[in-house]
Amino acid sequence: MNISASGALTLKGAAVSLSGMQSLSVKTASDKIELLEENKSSSEEIKLDAIVRQAFPTILSAFEKDVQENGLAAVMARRAFNNQIAEAKGKIDAFGDTLLGLWNTAVDAGDMLLTGLAGEEHARFI
């Protein structure tokens, strides 16, 4: 359980309940109430001490910073554009690999033809 307040904290209601699974300890300036298993205690007025806590700003990821600075639509458009560029580059690379494979096949076919026509010994000198 965590109760935080800046300034004054008031809990009001017909019944305000604080409970702990195994035990509960409530300290005030003048009283201390410890509730262990099967022990119950109540009070007309209990004052709780507060602890000063420090909060830190949320650390944003690079994507969140980009969205915050440029807007969601701009980030989506840029990512879609970058995906299209990467896809086009992949297609160009695949085409280059296909041409290289065809060239290697033609060279191998030429080597086989030359070896078959001239013989293996004479093909070395051509």
Provide an overview of this structure.
The protein has 126 residues and is mainly α. The chain has two domains: 1-55, no CATH class; 62-123. The chain has helices at 62-70, 72-118, 120-123, and strands at 24-27, 32-35. The protein has a two-stranded antiparallel ribbon. Helix 1 crosses helix 2 (72-118). The N and C termini lie far apart (89 Å). The model has no long low-confidence stretch (mean pLDDT 75).
Give a brief outline of the structure:
The chain is built from three helices and two strands, in the order E-E-H-H-H.
Number of strands: 2
- Topology as a string of helices (H) and strands (E): EEHHH
- Compute the CA-based radius of gyration: 39 Å
Helix content percent band: 40-55%
Mean pLDDT: 75
Strand content: 5-15%
What structural class do you assign from the helix and strand content?
mainly alpha
What's the number of structural domains? 2
Shape label? rod-shaped
Q: Please state how the strands of the largest beta sheet are arranged side by side.
A: 1-2
